[in-house]
Amino acid sequence: MDPCIFVWNCRGAGSRKFIRVFKEYKRKHNPNIVIIVEPRVSGATAQNVIKEMGYDKQLVVDALGFSGGIWLLWNEAEFNISRVDSQAQFIHVLAARTGRPEDKWNLTAVYANPAPIQRRQLWAALRRISESQELPWILMGDFNSILHPSEKLGGGGGSL
Question: Which domain holds residue 50?
């Protein structure tokens, strides 16, 4: 069975609505691994929300104020996941299904800073990671990058 990985830029995980919507999605799709980007909460508030989401393991890059953040959640009965590297814009892990350590792969969860200068640091780090890859690699998240202004829906204006 392949992993079911769910990535959501929720733009705020501190509300009851977030929990309600997430639990409905979880009931319907039963994701094994969950990546929440831009939760906009950290510390005790984040831990309370994460606990309510129903996963027993987590890796967290805290939001800076009300900006950014990455949560990687899973159940230990299904996956063994260990942090290889993390910075403000990503979490890079080694993963294997529990009981099948020979089937290893890497996963990098990304929330790119909206500021282009900060994103350059992310791209440099991802380049370093890619050059050292010997295993299958899943790279996913919100890269805060579009090719053309017509791709953008909602939100504030931005410069390309």
Answer: 5-146
- Position of tokens 């159940």? 75
Eight-state DSSP code of residue 67:
B
For the chain, what is the largest distance between any 2 Cα atoms, rounded to a whole number of angstroms?
A: 48
- Residue 155, in any domain of the structure: no
Question: CB under 8 Å to 105, separation ≥6 — which residues?
Answer: 94, 95, 96, 135, 136, 137, 138
Domain total of the chain: 1
**Which pLDDT tens digit goes with each residue over 93-110?**
999 999 998 999 999 999
Structure tokens at 30: 């039963």
CA distance 47 to 28: 24
User: What is the pTM assigned to this prediction?
Assistant: 0.90
Query: How distant is the alpha carbon of residue 103 from its chain centre?
Result: 21
In a domain, 159, yes or no: no
